[in-house]
Amino acid sequence: MTAPPPVYLDNNATTACDPEVVAAMLPFFTEQFGNASSMHAFGAKVGAALRDARKSLQALLGAAHDHEIIYTSGGTESDNAALLSALETQGGRDEIITSTVEHPAILSLCDWLEKSRGVTMHRIGVDSLGRLDLEAYRRALSPRTAIVSFMWANNETGTLFPVELLAELAHEAGALFHTDAVQAVGKIPINLASSPIDMLSLSGHKLHGPKGIGALYVKKGVRFRSLIRGGHQERGRRGGTENAPAIIGLGKAAELALAHMGEERTRVMALRDRLEKGILQRVGNCFVTGDVRERLPNTANIAFECIEGEGILLLLNKEGVAASSGSACTSGSLEPSHVLRAMNVPYTAAHGAIRFSFSRDNTDADVDRVLDVLPPIIERLRALSPFWRGAGQEPAAFNPTFA
Ligand SMILES: Cc1ncc(COP(=O)(O)O)c(C=O)c1O
After folding, report:
1. Which atom of ligand 1 is nearest to the CA of 203?
2. What does residue 364 show for φ and ψ, rounded to 5 degrees?
3. Ligand 1 contacts CB of residue 326 (under 6 A)
4. Alpha helix (H) ranges present in 118-212?
5. Is 17 part of the annotated catalytic residue set?
């Protein structure tokens, strides 16, 4: 018997590069190898292609001007560039507001800024659905706030923050507003021209583009200091010869995302919802985490009580199904994800949380396959669990609160 085809449901980690993206990139590794800055035909051709790519990304973002886009090496660099720039341009303001559920690209930068530069950090918490504590945010804003950085969509649960409202509040305090929109771009409509967002980070590999390319949007009129100083590329805002194949690939990915968004959003959401409903019907003692009303269309995060996510992933992987858990293996002990901890998801469930994240490449057959293989996996693992006391029962004893 031939093995069923593999099922990839880890698209928030990375997506497959679209074949059209690869095709668009290939000539820029071979015959179109010129440096866009060169004063000859080889350079001019590449320069023209880069300008077209920038227009495609501008259209996806609904940005007013193409020069509001600065290419970077990805989401992490864009996040770093935004926060570090604000600390330099915001005239003596030395505080940053962010949330407890950001990606490490923001959180570890903030930890470092706090420890080594003495920047005061305000990390705003969330409720049990992952919604931001608006009152705590209002209280943290002050004339000392340089920049506020809240993610648009959470990478683990898909929960959306109301970034436009949050940006308006930041402006009332004279602060800049940045959003890490790495998980939002290409999945939900965005119109930056009519939004108060000052800066936005995105990453190519989350929207069927290549890895190692991203962009930082900086609204016209917002002062910006380069993170990477060098040549005059990107209007002097990011030095280094442009990664032409990757930029052109990101442009193609943006064009495809915009073209597919309407219909694919609905189709992907229906797949996600069918998977979620099917799991909740077939498996007891599990629940969806995050804000189901304000969520990305492609993400389902389900917490299974009394078992470890890593066990589930291992057995799913044996069946050819790829998903992910938010846990990080630190110092020998498996810590549940910082996002689920911030949401106060009970310990015995947070450990068993699995994220299924879809893309336009997924089909109904993928959902059917997971619904076939997952219930027996959960049953098998629970039979081995010291915490499992039977369907509908509270988990046994050990249920510490998080430190
Ligand atoms: C919300 C978020 N921000 C930032 C990043 C980092 O992006 P990159 O891999 O392009 O550096 C990721 C990647 O997982 C992400 O999900």
Report:
1. 10
2. -60, -35
3. no
4. 134-140, 163-172
5. no
**pTM of model > 0.90:** yes
Distance from residue 186's CA to the centre of ligand 1 (Å)? 14
CB 42 within 8 A of CB 33: yes
End-to-end CA distance of the chain: give it in Å, rounded: 50
Looking at every residue in the chain, the average pLDDT score rounds to 94
Report the alpha-carbon distance of residue 67 to residue 263 in Å, rounded. 29
Cα 76 to ligand 1 centre (Å): 6
Residue 260: C-alpha distances to residues 14, 46, 253, 267, 270 (Å): 18, 27, 10, 10, 15
**Ligand 1 site, residue 215, Cβ cutoff 6 A:** no
**Which helix (H) or strand (E) segment is 321 a member of?**
strand 321-322
Compute the distance between CA of residue 71 and CA of residue 156 in angstroms, rounded to an integer.
Answer: 25
In tens, the pLDDT along 28-63 reads: 999 999 999 999 999 999 999 999 999 999 999 999
Quick check: 95 pLDDT over 60?
A: yes
Nearest to 319 by CA among 392, 391, 385, 372: 372
Instruction: Work out the average pLDDT over 194-220.
Output: 98
CA of 170 to the centre of ligand 1 (A): 23
99 lines ligand 1 (CB under 6 A): no
User: Mutation test of ligand 1: which of 149, 206, 250, 339 has the most ligand atoms closer than 8 Å to its C-beta?
Assistant: 206
> How far is the centre of ligand 1, averaged over its atoms, from the C-alpha of 4 (Å)?
31
Looking from the CA of 184 toward its CB, the CA atoms found within 13 Å total 22
Q: Is the pLDDT of residue 397 over 90?
A: no
Report which protein residue has its CA nearest ligand 1's atom 16.
155
Are the C-beta atoms of residues 17 and 249 closer than 8 Å to each other?
A: yes
∠ Cα 167 168 170 (to 5°): 65
Token pair of 97, please? 């507001």
Q: Report the sign of the C-alpha dihedral through residues 184, 127, 310, 381, in that order.
A: negative
249 CB under 6 A from ligand 1?
no
User: Are 349 and 308 a contacting pair, CB within 8 Å?
Assistant: no
pLDDT in tens, 275-332: 999 999 999 999 999 999 999 999 999 999 999 999 999 999 999 999 999 765 544 5
Closest protein CA for atom 4 of ligand 1: 75
